[in-house]
Amino acid sequence: MRENLDQWTFVIAAYVIGVGATLILAGWSWLGMKRAEKRRDESRGR
Amino acid sequence: MHAYANPARFLKLARPLTSVLLVSGLLLTAAALFYGLFHAPAERLQGETVRILFLHVPTAWLGMAGWSGIAVASFVELVWRHPLATIAARAIAVPGAVFTFVCLATGSIWGRPAWGTWWVWDGRLTSMLVLLFLYFGYIALASSLDREGGSSRIAAIFGLVGAANIPIIHYSVIWWNSLHQPPSLTTGGSAMAGPFLWGLLAATLGFTLLFAGVVLARMRAILADAQAEARLRRKALEA
Fold first, then answer.
1. pLDDT tens figures, B99-153
2. Chain B residues within 8 Å of chain A (Cβ atoms)
3. CA distances from B215 to B44, B132, B148, B218, B221 (A)
4. Which pLDDT score is estimated for B144?
């Protein structure tokens, strides 16, 4: 029996996972860098 | 290479490069994925699901390139004791694991309509899953060594030994029977149609720039954390 699958459902699911993970990774790395550099600069002034 | 063993010299280069790589990577990736999603033609056999490959192929490349980067950094750390090599290996691990996971997830989603199954235990899929577990092992080992003050050389040896999996992933579709297709892009040419090939190359370049930007950002974070901790420790001793 041949299944009737909507291919776009699979395409959208893959893009949500791929794009979501990439944006979270980039944002998390950028914010982590900014936070760490702020902490270093603050430690200079203490 | 040794000139950049000095963190100050590295930071002078990394500061402007981080945002350039991140922004250009994001823009190129967004454009390539937009093309893949809305403009690339559907394929004769795979239909619309061929669009998933604009994500799957670049992330597969980065999963393997990431571990290759860890292996090179580990080698440099073991042989020359380059201080930034340890930091580079640590910074690559998380993005490498994320892209390996995305590769496996998008491959599985593509496999359901194309092969009729989410997963098969064949050489390519299994060796890629092993790569994800290697990343998890490396991240756990490196963070435990950093926390407990152990020798980072143990993580470097793990990084080098794990590199044995990279040629296994690459040749798995040639050595063993597999549902996974053999390489479409080789030094001898491409089996892909032009519109698809150029879109895929743009997506691969975009993701690679993004990956490099993320690695630089994470290296800067590790360096800044180490500098802040050293400074606070020194002040505590002086007080």
1. 999 999 999 999 999 889 999 999 999 999 999 999 999 999 999 988 887 778 9
2. 18, 22, 26, 29, 33, 37, 47-49, 51-52, 55-56, 59, 94-95, 98, 101-102, 105-106, 109-110, 112-113, 116, 207, 210, 213-214, 217-218, 220-222, 224-225, 227-228, 231-232, 235
3. 38, 18, 24, 5, 10
4. 92
Residue A7 to residue B102, Cβ atoms within 8 A: no
Distance from C-alpha of B62 to C-alpha of A22, rounded to nearest angstrom: 12
Domain edges within chain B: 55-178+192-238
ipTM score of complex: 0.91
Residue whose pair of structure tokens reads 């606070």 in the numeric block: B232
Interface A-B: count of C-beta contacts within 8 A? 103
Tens digit of each residue's pLDDT (9 = 90 or more) over A1-46: 456 778 999 999 999 999 999 999 999 999 999 999 999 998 877 6
